[in-house]
Protein 1
Amino acid sequence: DALGALVYKVEGVEFNIGSVISALITFLITAFVLFLIVKAANKMKNRGKKEEAAEEEAVPTSEDYLKEIRDLLAAQTPPAETVKTDSTFTEK
């Protein structure tokens, strides 16, 4: 191990710098792989939410149905005119 040979001496105490660097590299690689796994899991989770939201938007609400009925009734021919005679209505 080339990194294991790196040693730093301070007042007779040896610090194995190679082991620290090796552990740091291992930690960074592990953290990066874990980050990619979590990112992929979140992407899959959000994809399901987007599909559900699209399905919910496609389903008409009761207000939409009522507006459609109103528009259809307005498009029909107008009802026969009525004339008021005395206190009753008669069709013309």
Protein 2
Amino acid sequence: MAPRRRTPLVVSNNFKLVFLSAVGLTLLPILIAVIYSLLVTDPTEIQSRVISVCLDLAKIGFGTVFGLIGGARMK
């Protein structure tokens, strides 16, 4: 049996836009959390919550990015 040839994955411009937006919106809260935690030496409860929310948004963003990659690969 001959091995199957894989066809190259064609990525549309719309997918590129959505993917790059998801990556950008994932990196933004990470950057905010890192900068905020470096600037604040003794965070209050609210400041700690802001950092926690930023990290939660980053987790959601990672799930989105990997979901987009998996969905594109399933086509």
Protein 3
Amino acid sequence: MEIANLKEEVSKLERILQNYNWCEMKITNKTILEKMSDHYQNLVHLQKMFDEKNYLNSKDFVNYYKELHQKLGIILSNKHLRIIAFHPKVVLKDNIKKVFQNYFRE
């Protein structure tokens, strides 16, 4: 029964990603889930810093975001970042969504 549930969940996730026109990403790190939890606090801190002080410009923020994911073993392309910035179904805090949008306008 568990295998059937997993297959159903995979199918559901594939449909969602197709809806976003999300292209495949290269994941180079097999221990990604462990590393994600380690680095999550860094991203939260960066987001708070940006929200409170406008401390970073859009380019620096997005480059940090890409670098953080690369450290985790996820290679984000500009196509992925454009989807994050402009797809209406990708929900982020308004300030953060604008940061990604400004990255492509600069």
